[in-house]
Amino acid sequence: MAGLPSGQEKAQTPTPTPLGVYVHVPFCATTCDFCAFYQTVPKGDAIARYLDGIEAEAGLVEWGGRAAATAFWGGGTPGLLKADQLDRLGRIMLLYCGGQPTEWSVELAPATVTAERLAVLKALGVTRISLGVQSFNDALLDALGRQHTPAQVYRAYDLIRAQGFASVNVDLMFALPGQEETQWRADLDEALRLAPDHLSTYCLTFEEDTALWVKLSQGKVKLDPAKEALFYQRTWDYLGAAGFAQYEVSNFARQGHACTHNLNTWHMYEWVGLGPSGASQHAGWRASNPPDLGLWLADVGAGRRATADRTALTEALLASDAVVFGLRMNAGVSLPRLRKRFPRANWSGLEDLLPRLLLEGLLTATQEGVIRLTPRGRLIADAVGAEVLEAFEAETRSTSR
Question: Where are the transmembrane segments (predicted)?
């Protein structure tokens, strides 16, 4: 194909893959110390303008008659919207995305959970609530800049369960500043006592331009890779023994409760991102909206969307990302299946890399060609992923000369 080097032909999709919809709700009352997602305080008529913008942007999407299989609302804090605003947002999405998704997740912060908001979400057809708990420890919550208390967590969880949502996730974070292993174990114990269907356990990361990054640069907090590795290993062992199957480095679920939207994303299928900073992988392109409410509204008002970081979805790009994210999943990556899906990608660089990763004990491989990270490999999944990307990029460079 003209304009793209060998191995970088624009990807063709012979059969439609599942389509997801992500809606970014950018509003937060305050900014948590660790958060690097785009957010803004909802002043004046900001929420009304946002809802108008979502409706306008959804009308710009080339849906092609396809219905969304999954939907995910994140933020920000979707729960800052009032019940009638949540209802309008949901009806807009349902109108344009082809009807009721099979799975529909909404992130909620404990302090924003009310019976009225939950009733609206349930009536709309939301199937899955992800509750941003992070910790049950007051001091640790304060260290993260979170605006809820453990008491609000319990109240929110009870209200969510009372509405009868099909699946409930609890988000937790570990390796927090000053956190000891006993405190992390206590958080896990308390989460298990609540008996959610799904648990997401994230190692605290220090993103640039966050309050935690500033504290790190000032020496007020420190990285401790050995403690992080210990927390990872203890978490995997403990939750596995408690009946939660790990299906991705940070995610655990009871049978039938894995997050389908995330799985489809990690498999490099398609999704439409709506709202400021919303990212899309759709209709042959990967791109995002500007992370600014005013700029996004201006784009949409001019009939534009997904204008930032616009990149053609080549087979090389999709293949490399499918391997990187696939290795984070416990099921691993079927290389024969991916090679059939992306036959024009350059696979030679990965083939050269795999023997070393196997020799170093970071990967295992089956006779059927399925590769998986070992427990040791999962501890450095990001580093392995970086090597995989470099292998694909190096091979692409060599064949395009």
Answer: none
Please tell me whether residues 88 and 196 are part of one structural domain.
yes
Tell whether 125 and 221 lie within a shared domain.
yes
Could you tell me if 134 and 109 are in contact, meaning their C-beta atoms sit under 8 angstroms apart? no
Closest CA to 77 of 53, 119, 41, 116: 41
218 and 343 within one domain: no
Number of domain units in the chain: 2
Q: Is residue 292 part of a domain?
A: no
Closest C-alpha among 48, 64, 68 to residue 56: 48
Q: Is residue 309 part of a domain?
A: no
Shared domain for 254 and 333, answered yes or no, is no
pLDDT per position in the chain (401 positions), as tens? Answer: 344 444 455 555 445 789 999 999 998 766 555 445 556 777 889 999 999 999 999 999 999 999 999 999 998 889 999 999 999 999 999 999 999 999 999 999 999 999 999 999 999 999 999 999 999 998 888 877 767 899 999 999 999 999 999 999 999 999 887 788 999 999 999 999 999 999 999 987 645 555 443 444 555 555 567 888 889 999 999 999 999 999 999 999 999 999 999 999 999 999 999 999 999 999 999 999 999 999 999 999 999 999 999 999 999 999 999 999 999 999 999 999 999 999 999 999 999 999 999 999 999 999 999 999 999 999 999 999 999 999 998 766 555 54
- We report the CATH number of the domain holding residue 188 as 3.20.20.70
242 and 321 together in one domain: no
* Domain interval for residue 232: 19-265
Contact between 119 and 67 under an 8 Å Cβ cutoff? The reply is no
Put the strands of the sheet holding 103-108 in their side by side order. 245-248, 251-253, 198-203, 167-174, 128-134, 103-108, 70-75, 19-25, 270-274, 279-282, 285-288, 308-312
